[in-house]
Design a protein that fits this description.
The complex is a heterodimer of chains A (about 525) and B (about 375). With about 525 residues, chain A is α/β, with parallel strands linked by helices. Chain A has two domains: about 5-175, Ribosomal Protein S5, domain 2 (2-Layer Sandwich), CATH 3.30.230.10; about 200-515, P-loop containing nucleotide triphosphate hydrolases (Rossmann fold, 3-Layer(aba) Sandwich), CATH 3.40.50.300. Chain A is about 40% helix and about 15% strand. The radius of gyration of chain A is 28 Å and the shape is elongated. Chain A starts with 5 loop residues before the first strand and ends in a 10-residue tail after the last helix. Chain B has helices spanning about 5-20, 25-35, 40-45, 50-65, 90, 125-140, 155-165, 185-195, 210-220, 240-245, 265-270, 300-315, 320-330, 335-340, 345-360, and strands at about 75-80, 100-105, 115-120, 145-150, 170, 195-200, 225-230, 250-255, 275, 360-365, 370. Chain B has a nine-stranded mixed β-sheet with strand order 1-2-6-5-4-3-7-8-9, with helices on both faces. A two-stranded antiparallel sheet of chain B has the order 10-11. Chain B starts with a helix and ends with a strand. The chains are: A alpha/beta (about 525), B alpha/beta (about 375).
């Protein structure tokens, strides 16, 4: 591997969420002192020459004299970021015989950013890099010690966290080795650390909203909360991730990989343990929401994967941006095509949106403060396109809570089971289990009611004949589209799952139709 | 009505309006000409009398050459003040329009024994719409012609009830009768043309202007025996119409509303100043007492059924459903409010409300449940 004046080392670049193994070769040629880097690197990679030179000097080594050429393969892949500093420095040192690898050491990869004084800094995407290195059969990796938390999740790879270049050199030569680490997957219990305070404690009144959020969480149904300013839409939305069942180990790994790549990994290191809750401002751009860039990077809807994407003031978001969500809502992932390359990101999020029902916000207030005329209401709501509106399974109208209710402490016993947080969580977990079982009988991958795609939904959802006639009548009267009709059945199925009934009954349909047939708020334009 | 006369009427009105010749003078010219046919000759004859009338004649000729453009339908007509079909009541006001343009079969219903003008806010509450519906249904049963302004809100509701009851109704517009304003009333206007008429003092092709509407209001007040204001908040334009009505000696009637919402302030102001307070249409002075079904069509049949529907179905309601109906009669409410007031859980309330919707007793209005 190390001929005189030549050395090769592996590292890993990121494209989208995936890592691509990159080989870094360094050759020292005769000629005037020069340091060249080839292989489609970005600014950060070209600047790495200066960091590497300084770090080598400050760690007590010598930068080789002569013409130093580094090449990153595959040369066709555009590479970016500072993670190649450490392998480049190691390769330069090895090719100038300042590091001698002991015979019989296995292939080793490295990544990490260097500071001028020779410290190794954190880089994002450690999880994704390690997973793809493992796939290529590389079992020994040297990287920043700050990434150890993420690295712990990847078993059968020996990860050596280092904090200085000097330390890395010692590890790379095989002289010293950190005490071997038992491949420790996080125990499933560690993922469940959500038994905190009562999530409903901060919400006064709003039983209808809580119930709708429970249904949304139980069946992964997109939900739209409508109500006057300050009626508690945001509080309700932020409760949803807390009542969702905890992430499974695989899901946690999936989410952590996304977070690691996009630089959102938990500062404490380790895996993401709670369901993501992404709350974006209404000035969000298309690229920020669904992802983008020359080399596509994940957007908010990918960051919300397996969690909640909350769009507040959804009528203020540019319609073009909103409509971009239609594809991920339908398929659970997003496919981006850019000049340089294409990428597919997972985007299976629970869509929660909130808005005022009209410009002034008071349309649904029964005291009639709203003075918006029908045309103004229609104009306001037309910011959400028809097809997107159709995809909201649940549309909830909320009214302000009066002062009497606000100052009274909610009493968990008297105000029905709806407010009971622990019970709600249990009900939702049970509903998920029921759905999983039903889906496994058919061999479906997506088990949640909102995601199930079967040719015979009536049979699959077990609608009783009486309920079916009832549902058809409602659909007739409200002129529901086919999509809306089946989405009503889906909600009814989720309600029946929550109530632990095998068949959908009329009362389930009735409740579902209440959340489905909210529109039109105003008489349709003739 | 021949096309030539329609053109003459249009050209004359445009020319006279451009030269700001008042309606009284236009009426004198029309009387001398014995109607629209003789108008060009009359104008030719009088053009030497004064430089003003000379200008009118040359303007008239230019306008006449421009009138080829407008599309007329067989329903379009113009009627001058000397014509026998001209609405009689309008003659007894201070500025009757010298020529009325209308689209519809005839406007003879405006000479019926009793004509009512129903007006109100363009942005009504649920209460205002319900009141208008209830009272207008009664007017239809008594064979009273309903006149209104063709605007959004109360006006549209009044016309809509009359049309669905198969009764003649007249909309007085602030633009040419070939212009649909507001746009969403396109189909309503078509129905009005079918059974009644769209009327305007503005010639074909005139676009709506802000200052047209106060002038239009004087016609609204002039055409009727009584003006009924069903809902109007403070500073409403209905006060202008009510003012004209009082000047012309028409009865001004108003429906009271809630003092909490402030949506009926102008009605209360009118009552304070002496308007007749109306709870049922029998409160309106000189209203015909006999119920007349004008048209025995299927329309009328379903319409009268609709009026009695609530009584018929009251019998097979559960206790909860009755409780909900009583609650919703007072005000529109959300699901949660209904469940709270009737002491039912959310699921049962949803079921009851859905059943009531199936029976047609409850519907959604602006996102809230209301009694229909």
């Amino acid at each position: 591997m190390s001929a005189k004046n030549y050395h090769r080392i592996s590292s890993c670049a990121l494209t989208g969420l995936e890592g691509v193994v990159v080989e870094i070769e360094v050759s020292i040629l005769p000629g005037l002192p020069r340091f060249e880097v080839t292989g489609r690197g970005d600014h950060a990679i070209r600047e790495s020459r200066d960091r590497v030179r300084a770090a080598i000097r400050h760690s007590g080594y010598n930068f080789p004299k002569g013409r130093v050429v580094a090449s990153y393969a595959p040369a066709s892949l555009p590479k970016q970021g500072s993670a190649f500093d450490l392998p480049l420095a190691l390769a330069v040192l090895a090719s100038s015989d300042q590091v001698v690898r002991m015979a019989g050491t296995s292939e080793t990869a490295a990544f990490g950013e260097l500071s001028l004084d020779g410290h190794v800094r954190y880089v994002h995407g450690a999880l994704g890099r390690l997973l793809s290195l493992r796939e290529k059969g590389i079992r020994h990796v040297i990287g920043p010690s700050a990434c150890e938390g993420e690295a712990n999740a990847v078993d059968s790879v020996r990860y050596e966290g280092v904090s200085t270049l000097k330390e890395a050199v010692l590890r790379y030569s095989g002289v010293s080795s950190s005490k071997s680490r038992a491949a420790a997957l996080p125990a499933p219990e560690a993922v469940q650390d959500l038994e905190a305070a009562d999530p409903f404690g901060m919400i006064r009144g709003q039983e209808e909203g809580i119930r709708a959020c429970t249904i949304a969480a139980a069946g992964w149904h997109p939900i739209l909360l409508m109500g006057a300013p300050g009626c508690g839409k945001t509080s309700l939305a932020s409760v949803i991730p807390e009542i969702l069942p905890p992430l499974t180990v695989e899901e946690s790994l999936e989410v952590s990989k996304i977070y690691s790549v996009s630089g959102h990994a938990p500062r404490s290191g380790g895996l993401v343990k709670s369901r993501p809750f992404r709350h974006t401002h209404h000035t969000v751009t298309c690229g920020a929401l669904i992802g983008g860039g020359l080399i596509p990077s994940p957007g908010e809807c990918t960051l919300a994967h397996r969690g909640v994407l909350f769009l507040d003031e959804v009528t203020e978001i540019q319609p073009r941006v909103l409509d971009a969500l239609r594809e991920p809502l339908e398929t659970g992932h997003i496919h981006l095509s850019r000049a340089e390359r294409n990428a597919t990101f997972p985007a299976d999020f629970l869509f929660v949106a909130a808005c005022n029902p009209c410009r002034c916000g008071y349309l649904l207030e029964p005291k009639g403060q709203c003075r918006c005329d029908d045309a103004a209401v229609r104009r306001h709501l037309s910011r959400i396109s028809g097809p997107l509106f159709d995809r909201f399974d649940l549309v909830v109208s909320l009214t302000r809570v009066d002062t009497q209710e606000m100052i009274s402490i909610p009493d968990a016993d008297s105000t029905s089971s709806i407010r009971h947080a622990k019970l709600t969580k249990e009900l939702i977990s049970n509903a998920w289990a029921v759905q999983q079982e039903r889906a496994s009988r058919r061999g479906l991958a997506n088990f949640l009611n909102a995601k199930v795609r079967v040719p015979d939904p009536e049979r699959y959802f077990a609608v009783s004949d009486k309920a079916m006639t009832f549902a058809a009548d409602i659909a007739d009267r409200n002129q529901l589209s086919v999509r809306s009709f089946f989405s009503m059945l889906r909600i009814a199925r989720t309600i029946a799952d929550l109530e632990q009934h095998e068949f959908i009954r009329e009362i389930d349909i009735a409740e579902a139709s209440h959340y489905k047939a909210r529109l039109p708020f105003v008489t349709p334009q003739s | 009505m021949s096309e030539a006369q329609l053109k003459i009427a249009t050209a004359f009105t445009r020319a006279a309006s451009a030269l700001r010749i008042p309606h009284s003078e236009r009426a004198i010219i029309l009387k001398k000409a014995h109607g629209l046919e003789g108008l060009p000759e009359q104008l030719l004859m009088i053009k030497d009398d004064s430089p003003e009338l000379d200008a009118l004649y040359s303007r008239f000729l230019t306008e006449l050459s421009h009138t080829d453009k407008f599309d007329r339908t067989t329903d379009d007509h113009a009627i001058s003040i000397v014509h026998s079909d001209y609405p009689e009541r309008l003659l007894h006001t201070d500025q009757p329009p010298s020529i009325l343009f209308y689209r519809g079969k005839c406007i003879s219903s405006l000479n019926d024994p009793f004509v009512i003008t129903v007006i109100g806010t363009r942005n009504p509450s649920f209460y205002g719409l319900e009141v208008t519906k209830k009272l207008c249904m009664e007017f239809v049963r008594r064979g009273v012609t309903i006149v209104s302004g063709g605007a959004r809100g109360i006006d549209g509701q009044a016309h809509g009830v009359a049309v669905s009851g198969g009764s003649a109704t007249v909309a007085v517009l602030g633009c040419g009768v070939d212009i649909v304003y507001p746009r969403e009333h396109a189909s309503l206007f078509e129905q009005i043309v079918h059974s009644g008429a769209l009327v305007s003092e503005y010639p074909f092709g005139t676009l709506p202007r802000k200052y047209h509407f106060p002038a239009r209001n004087r016609i609204l007040a002039g055409l009727c025996d009584a003006v009924l204001v069903t809902e109007a908040s403070r500073f409403s334009g209905t006060l202008i119409t009510a003012g004209f009505a009082a000047d012309y000696g028409r009865d001004v009637c108003a429906v009271p509303g809630s003092i909490l919402s402030g949506t009926s302030r102008s009605c209360h102001d009118l009552i304070r100043e002496g308007a007749t307070i109306v709870e049922s249409i029998d409160d309106i002075p000189r209203i015909p007492r006999h119920i007349i079904y004008r048209k025995e069509s299927s329309d009328t049949h379903s319409f009268s059924l609709h009026c009695n529907q609530t009584e018929n179905e009251q019998n097979d309601l559960s206790k909860e459903e009755e409780c909900i109906l009583n609650l919703l009669a007072a005000a529109p409410r959300t699901l949660r409010a209904v469940s709270e007031h009737c002491h039912l859980d959310l699921r049962k309330t949803a079921l009851s409300l859905t059943t009531l919707q199936e029976k047609g007793l409850v519907r959604l209005y602006r996102g809230l449940y209301v009694r229909s």
